[in-house]
Design goal:
disordered C terminus, 13 helices, alpha/beta, two-stranded antiparallel ribbon
């Protein structure tokens, strides 16, 4: 590991109760990344499982930023980006592991393509099988296309053709945030992640805003990262399902036309009303209240917009994407 020179890449991880996985992630970085000087910044979102102590004592070369509360994935990355010294940021989930040095390829690609702002490497499951890690832009049609591809990939008759598609270097709308390489200057230009997304859709929003400015997003299969998938989410699945819908509704409110917002809200209302009729469950009632709140509250976009701008400014002076 090259630590004695000014870092070219700042590797950022946001940890929340990841004592059983973050160590393997950090060990893999130290073992395999030997080419370019880099720094590793871990933001701990108020973990209670001893993982901050583990990082502090086992990996003293890591810059650990302990937070008093869990403000979410996007906010954690924003905090780290403020102190990052690299020209490029590599945002990693704590449940990722390196099996090779991916840095030379990422640096070469982003320099060869000056109009590319974001690159996502190929993601693999722990058994070495392909993990789908791109998506169409978020919309009624785009989400259907992404969900259909995910479902098709579960069927053996479609796996070969989809796997072949993911062997090609290609421009995409969205790359999954589990391994997300971005120019730091672009990240700062965008104001970082929108912190109104506690979890889910934050990378989709960032990709959309980058594309709005004319930047391209690249998926490269020439390097790969192991992604264990869904570690923190599985621990609090009911809460995360609610966060998913919150973020989905907010994303549509921010980026999609009114008719798509109405279709989404109507679909969700019918979906959870039907579920509530079949089984009385507090979570279904929470989902219904959420949908109705987004439908009826006036001025919510303006509120979120002003809060979004303030969040990143206050930091300065202020994975898994899946369909549920």
């Amino acid at each position: 590991m090259i630590r004695d020179r000014t870092p070219i890449i700042s590797i950022i991880l946001v940890n929340y109760n990841g004592a059983d996985i973050v160590g393997e992630c950090l060990r893999s970085l130290e073992q395999f990344l030997q080419s370019y000087p880099y720094e590793v910044i871990v933001v701990d979102n108020a973990s209670q499982d001893g993982s901050p102590d583990l990082i502090e004592h086992t990996f003293p070369w890591v810059q650990l930023l302990k937070q008093p509360e869990n403000r979410g994935f996007g906010a954690g990355n924003n905090i780290a980006a403020k102190v990052a010294r690299g020209e490029f940021l590599l945002l990693l989930n704590t449940d990722t592991q390196m099996t090779s040095d991916i840095l030379p390829h990422l640096i070469r690609q982003i320099k060869d393509y000056p109009d590319v702002g974001i690159i996502g490497p190929q993601l693999l499951n722990p058994d070495g099988s392909l993990q789908l890690s791109t998506a169409w832009k978020i919309s009624i049609v785009g989400e259907y296309q992404t969900l259909k591809q995910q479902k098709d990939y579960q069927e053996p008759k479609h796996q070969a053709s989809i796997t072949q598609k993911f062997k090609a270097l290609q421009e995409v709308d969205i790359v999954v945030g589990a391994a997300f390489f971005i120019r730091k200057a672009l990240f700062e230009q965008l104001g970082g992640f929108d912190e109104n997304f506690f979890m889910y859709f934050e990378e989709s929003d960032l990709c959309q805003r980058a594309r709005n400015l004319g930047w391209k997003i690249l998926y490269t299969p020439e390097i790969s990262v192991i992604h264990i998938r869904g570690h923190s989410v599985n621990k609090v699945s009911d809460r995360m399902r609610l966060e998913y819908r919150k973020s989905q509704l907010y994303y549509y409110q921010k980026h999609r036309p009114l008719w798509e917002q109405l279709i989404l809200r109507l679909y969700l209302l019918l979906k959870f009303l039907a579920s509530a009729l079949l089984r009385l469950d507090l979570n279904n009632l929470k989902f219904i209240a959420l949908v109705l709140d987004f439908v009826t509250v006036q001025g919510v976009s303006d509120f979120y917009g002003s809060r979004r701008s303030a969040c990143f400014r206050n930091n300065t002076s202020s994975s898994d994407r899946k369909v549920i």
